[in-house]
Design goal:
This protein is α+β, with helices and mostly antiparallel strands. The chain has 20 helices and 24 strands. It is globular and about 80 Å long. It starts with 15 loop residues before the first strand and ends with a strand.
Length: about 575
């Protein structure tokens, strides 16, 4: 997979501005689109890149006056690029050698056509690379940057810029963590023109601090991050003292990629030994046991040419839950019959072994209250002298932790952690797929964009926790409302989107939109308060209002803003169909 090209994975929804663009406008653009960088370009040629770290550095260097400065004075002048036809491993090398998190993707003439990040590349590697989840203390960053409770926001900004870090931990007099301040917080605060940068950092910090213990599993910590909708955890010991931090990046890096190589090495080494010994099995039993038991976490089962089991190690007993006494001397087919595996499936496996000497497969077994996910490989054993097939070997390994890691990474990559709905990445994948399907079948579908009216007022009045709870409940209501073929996604902030395939006419779409508004009309519980929330929905139809994703989104977004204007006048939720 590392030999795939960048063209398959980069984000083509590029945000590019000219060097003359004001910093304030660029920051607003980043905030509204929930992105971490903007490409600076002249005539489509990349000349720089503005990141959240550049924004923190600008605040530290220029104070509030930086908002009116042209972006050309503050962005990173050195922009690292990669050609869209480059291999994935070449992009990894460029990120590592230049110590950056973003690469601008260019075409044959050097025009910027997209952006690829380290996370994009890691997600693309495939889940088989992310095995053997460790404990937090094995992957956490032990370098923690701390500020006191009397530190002003501007002082914190300067420290963050000087130390070139993405966040600071705020501790009280007893050195216990009370809050965090991140580059993303700085970008959000910079968009507020009335922000008092001389206020205490404690007034704008994210609190309470979500913590984890060094001995906790990375998987459990990742689940906590998903549940709390946060990007990092502060690591504390039994006394509550800070010992490190763990971010999503640390977690992904902690899922090691050694599995494939180590498995191949083990099987190759043991296969060579088996090849020379199975034909003398009765004479070499002790020697064979010594070799096979060396792989204590891999079940190994050896058979003769008739598929009768002649060797069954202790790891196989543990993994499969079948004692050796119940397996030795029995045929593979007999055991498969007990497990209700069809003869056709066995025949297919044997055909694969005959053609390419091995067959790999996956299966699951119930174990207690959980499920074990197992990976197995069936290989043939050739005689040392005449090359005749003299037996088979089956290797089995428990990959349950790998499966859990895959599920965690999938959720991080494609789902919004707060609402549980598909995120912007998965939304656009499904939109592109639906457009292609509708073109093939000459069918219609609808796209809706929904926004929460006066959402900022909810945050300002009741706090960000109340705003998060409102978004979470919106996601819960939407999840049970639509068909299985529909998609409801959170694009970022308080913006949601819906893809509704095979909708007959515009009136049907309007009826669905009204049903959504009816479902959301019930009051939302905000602490002790009961709040009525207004929503605005804009609708666009394929192909009437657009034949590609951009045109459909623009039409539905414009219709949504007209609905929002109506809401300001009539004080209720509204839905508007694109012209």
């Amino acid at each position: 997979m590392v030999k795939d090209t960048i063209e398959r994975i980069y984000c083509s929804e590029i945000m590019a501005v000219s060097p003359e663009t004001a910093m304030g406008d660029a920051i607003t653009l980043m905030r509204n689109n929930s992105i971490s960088c903007i490409v600076v370009a002249n005539d489509k040629k990349p000349v720089g890149i503005l990141t959240e770290r550049d924004i923190v550095r600008s605040i530290s260097a220029f104070g509030l006056s930086f908002m009116d400065l042209p972006i050309g004075e503050s962005h990173s002048k050195t922009v690292q690029t990669v050609h869209k036809d480059s291999f994935v491993f070449e992009a990894f090398q460029a990120l590592a050698e230049n110590n950056v998190r973003h690469l601008v993707v260019v075409d044959d003439v050097g025009d910027a056509v997209g952006v690829v990040t380290q996370s994009d590349l890691l997600n693309h590697l495939g889940y088989e690379y992310f095995i053997k989840v460790k404990t937090v203390d094995q992957v956490m960053n032990r370098q923690v940057y701390v500020i006191g409770m009397n530190t002003t926001l501007f002082e914190a900004t300067k420290k963050m810029a000087e130390m070139k870090v993405s966040f600071l931990v705020i501790c009280d007099e007893s050195a216990k963590p009370v809050g965090v301040l991140t580059e993303r917080d700085m970008t959000r605060l910079a968009a507020d023109k009335h922000m008092d940068w001389n206020c205490l950092a404690t007034e704008v910090m994210s609190s309470p601090v979500h913590t984890t213990h060094p001995g906790k599993s990375v998987y459990a910590a990742a689940e906590m991050m998903r549940e709390k909708n946060i990007r990092r955890l502060v690591v504390v010991n039994d006394e509550g003292d800070v010992t490190g931090v763990m971010t999503q990046t640390d977690m992904i890096h902690g899922l090691e990629s050694r599995y494939i190589d180590s498995l191949k090495t083990i099987i190759q080494e043991q296969g060579r030994e088996l090849d020379s010994m199975v034909n003398r099995l009765s004479e070499k039993t002790l020697y064979l046991d010594s070799i096979l038991h060396s792989s204590i976490d891999m079940g190994i089962i050896a058979t003769d040419a008739d598929m009768t089991i002649v060797y069954y190690n202790s790891a196989a007993e543990e993994i499969l839950g079948v004692p050796a006494s119940d397996a030795l001397g029995k045929s593979i087919a007999e055991i498969h019959a007990v497990e209700h595996v069809s003869q056709e499936r066995i025949a297919k496996a044997m055909r694969n072994v005959n053609e390419k000497q091995f067959h790999t497969f996956h299966f699951s077994r119930q174990r207690g209250c959980g499920v074990l996910h197992l990976q197995a490989r069936l290989s043939s054993i050739q005689g040392q002298h005449n090359g005749e097939r003299i037996g088979y070997v089956v290797t089995v390994q428990d990959i349950t932790e790998q499966q859990q890691a895959e599920d965690t990474i999938r959720r991080l990559a494609f789902y919004d952690m707060l609402t549980g709905l598909p995120n912007r990445v998965l939304f656009y994948e499904r939109l592109y797929s639906e457009i292609a399907r509708a073109r093939r079948q000459q069918s219609r579908f609808g796209l809706m964009i929904m926004d929460i009216d006066l959402f900022k007022k909810i945050n300002d009045t009741y706090g960000h926790h109340a705003g998060d709870n409102t978004l979470k409940e919106v996601g819960q209501r939407l999840d049970s409302l639509l068909r299985k073929t529909d998609t409801a996604a959170r694009l970022g902030g308080d913006e949601f989107a819906f893809i509704l395939p095979d909708v007959g006419n515009n009136e049907s779409m309007l009826r669905i939109a009204r049903n959504i508004l009816h479902c959301l009309a019930a009051p939302f519980a905000i602490g002790e308060h009961s709040l009525h929330v207004q929503f605005s929905i804009g609708i666009a139809m394929f192909p009437e209002h657009g034949c590609d994703s951009e045109a459909l989104y623009i039409c539905s977004d414009e219709a949504m803003y007209r609905a929002k204007e109506m809401g300001r006048r009539n004080g209720r939720s509204n839905v508007v169909m694109a012209d």
